[in-house]
Write a structure and sequence with these properties.
73% of the residues lie in helices and 0% in strands. It has seven helices and no strands.
């Protein structure tokens, strides 16, 4: 009889421990923030998402991800964003408006980080800026 009581007490204790653990887990899950896809993305991941969006011809998403990665200092994203803004609707349709001034700013930021392509593009953009027919007032 004593061993049966010990078994019942043992099972009762295990059941209480299990319930306590389950309640703690529920409390932790309830207190956690809702999952936000963009919240924990690293800069490189944003750049990769931009490349995937470009391959899928989702140019609006590409532009959003490129801007975020470029703003966070990713040199390839800065360079690519400059190129995208330079070509604009010619390659990307109505999703991207060409903006030589903004393209120049992103190219400058990429060039400062060592991008050779950005340096070449800056020379090109500066020539366009100096040309009488192509004069653009950039900040």
């Amino acid at each position: 009889m004593s061993s049966e009581l010990n078994q019942i007490a043992d099972w009762s204790l295990r059941w209480r421990i299990f319930l306590s653990g389950a309640l703690c887990l529920v409390a932790v899950i309830a207190a956690a923030k809702p999952f936000d896809v963009n919240a924990d993305l690293q800069t490189e991941q944003r750049y990769q998402l931009a490349l995937e969006a470009q391959a899928g011809r989702d140019y609006r998403t590409m532009l959003v991800q490129l801007r975020q990665a470029a703003t966070e200092g990713h040199p390839e994203a800065q360079e690519m964003l400059g190129m995208v803004l330079l070509t604009g609707q010619t390659l990307y349709g109505s999703a991207v408006k060409a903006d030589r001034c903004e393209a120049r700013n992103w190219m400058r930021r990429a060039a400062v980080q060592g991008s050779e392509t950005a340096k070449v593009q800056l020379v090109f953009l500066n020539r366009l800026r100096s040309a009488p027919a192509g004069r653009i007032d950039c900040e």
